[in-house]
Structure formats: C-alpha cells, structure tokens
Amino acid sequence: MITTSPAPVVALPPQPQAVSIPPRESLIERVPHIDPMAAFESAPPPIDLLFEGGPMVGTVGTIYSRGGLGKSYLVTELACAIASADLVGRDVPNPGDLLDIKPTQPGHVVYLSYEDPAIITTARLHAMGAKFRLDVRRAIADRLHIIPIMGYAEDYLLSDGGLADDLINWCLKNPTRLIVIDTISRAHQLDENSNPEMSLLLAILERIARSTGAAVLYVHHTSKGAVLNGLGTMAQAARGASALIDNCRWAAYLAPMTAKEADTVSDDYQTKNPIEEKNWWRYVMFGVSKSNYVTPIEPRWLWRDDGGVLVPASDLYPVPPAEEYGQGARPVQPAGISKRKGYGIATY
Prior knowledge:
The chain has about 350 residues and is an alpha/beta fold. It has one domain: P-loop containing nucleotide triphosphate hydrolases (Rossmann fold), CATH 3.40.50. The chain has helices spanning about 25-30, 35-40, 70-85, 120-130, 135-145, 165-175, 195-210, 225-230, 245, 260; strands at about 60-65, 110-115, 145-150, 175-180, 215-220, 250-255, 265, 285-290, 300-305, 310, 315-320. The chain is globular. The termini are far apart. About 35% of the residues are buried.
C-alpha cells in the first residue's frame, strides 16, 4: 500500500486592502461654464487691452523680427510705459511712454531676459533713463522687474511645476500687467518646428496668462526664408511651427526700411528727397500682423535715437511724384537689397 504525505500548506501573501478611489472631478465640471442667458441680458465689461490696439491682458502675444533690429529695446520701452502709465506729463499724456503706444493701466512688469547679459540690459535702461523725469524713473524702478536668466543652467525652463509655477506665484503677490519672455527659443528644449510641441509650449504660456491676469509677450525671430524674401511683416514670418502664431492672440513685428520704402518718404522737409541709404538703418517699421480682439494699430516708423532708443519717427514726409521735381531733378535710389552691414554705433 502506497501512502502519500499531505501536500505542504503554502501561505498566501496578504491581500491588499481595497481602497475606494473617489471619482476625479473632470475638467468639464471644474471649469465654470458661460451662462448664455446672462450674456444675452447683460453686456460684458470692455476688453482690457495692454495699450491701444495691443494685446488683451490674460492672453498670449508675440513680437518678432530678424536679429539686431531692436526687439529687446522695443519690449523694454513697452515695459517702462506700462510701469509708469499712471503719471501725467505737461506736454504728453504719459511721460514714460517713449513709443507713444498709450498704455491703458499701470502695473508690475516681469521681464525674463534669456538672451542678454545684465550689463547690456543696464546700458539700454541707462539710455532710456536720459529721457525720463525723476518721478518716471522712480515709478519704473518700483514696478519693472528684469531678471537676467542667461547663463543659469538650472530651473530656467518654462515648464509646469518649475519656473512657470514660480512666475505665477510671484505675480499673484504683485499685480502684474505684463510678462515678457525674451527670447522664447531659449526658454524651452522642445522642437520648435513641431506643432504638437509648440502647442504644448503655448498652453503653458496661456496658463501663466490666465493664472496671473497678465498679458504674456514672447520675443521671437523671423525665419531665414522670410528675411531673404522680404516677407518679415507677414504673420507666418515667425520662425518655427505655425502654432507659435496660430495659438497666440496678437502678433507684432519690427521690419527694416527697404529701398522701395525709402524711395517714398523723406527726412528733409525742404527738398523732399528720398532718404539716403546711409540713413536707412535708423528706421524700423513697427506693425501688427495679427489681432484677434481689436482693430490693429496702423504700421508706424520708429527712429533709432541716441543709444539705440526707439522713438516715433515724426520727421518723415511723403516724397512728391517725380514729375513735380522737373526733368532729371529727382535723385534715384538704388533698387534691390541694401548693401549696408551692421547697425551703426547703437547697442542692441
């Protein structure tokens, strides 16, 4: 008779206790819905623009151009105008508004400077300061916060849970009208030519804008093809994926004076001769290529003043038709692309 020993009893591992997971509140439930009936019966408040014809606060916009035209000067002057918007001058509405853009309200401005060392930004401010009264300087000093990030390898990327959260938390403590990111290509490590990845980046900027109530303006460059083909004023001239322009709500450009444009305007009231080529570098066109919520401002010429500061070019006059000069009297500007190199003595 064969006997068998009983099989050993194997102890089972303890079973995890069942945990009741509460249902996640969906985004559809979490975000307040728009009440159509309230919209039908009550007019909404006016759109809060950063300046006349400018971006709406709480949204994302961009300013782009080719390198060396003065984008950083432009946004720094814009920042100064916002920071001092509550001051009144004798001859001008806002003595801190060098660009004459007419800011609507004052507020703090945060400027993340990714591209330039601190000494360059300091030199720009020094050149601008020569044009400001003491009270304007003090207002700007109280509200303009320029952070030179260039060279800091840690924690400089605009990502959720990182610098984006730090920026939101600071702005919530200091009522902020404008956040400048100069330049956007240095603030991330994503593929600039990928629409999905640039949509993700713009979503982060939109979260910053929504959370802080500030307008977020990122500085960007035009593509090489747009520069070579003279298309720098087009909305899609910005380098990289189309989402960089499509997903923002406002876009502006700086563009150099071309030979054709120089032939139509004069800086000499007496002769009305076209602008000489040696002076073309001093003029840049500021215009709006995309504006979702308001009529865009008309393109305007800006002039590089002492130290590179941009101011409205108020001394330009239309060149009369050639027949008004008499036979052979009108000088002829060379056609084609300017042969000038560099941008004079101004610091950019």
